[in-house]
Amino acid sequence: MVFNNDVVKEKLRSLGKTQEDLARDMGVGVGTVNRWLNKKHVPLKVYIRLLTEVLDEYETRKAHT
To answer: Given CA atoms 35, 40, 43, 48 in this order, what sign does their dihedral have?
Structure first.
């Protein structure tokens, strides 16, 4: 499983979501998400899976609005 911070940043932008939204919905700190998106740390696989699930949920919600 590969993490691409630029793809995540773009998805958040296109969905109108913030790092704070993502952190809250993943149950992690904003600083953690910030470090992932600014290439200071790479998330563990379990968090990559969770991040993917949360982004998919955002896309599903947006498609139904």
So the answer is: positive
pLDDT per position as a tens digit, 18-57: 999 999 999 999 999 999 999 999 999 999 999 999 999 9
Give domain 5-63's CATH architecture: Orthogonal Bundle (1.10)
Strand spans (E) along 3-65: none
**Does this model's pTM top 0.90?**
yes
Q: 48: how many CB neighbours lie within 10 A of its CB?
A: 17
Q: How does DSSP classify residue 29?
A: -
**Can you tell me the distance from the alpha carbon of 39 to that of 4, in angstroms, rounded to the nearest whole number?**
9
Task: Show me where the domains of the chain are located.
Answer: 5-63
CA distance 26 to 12: 14
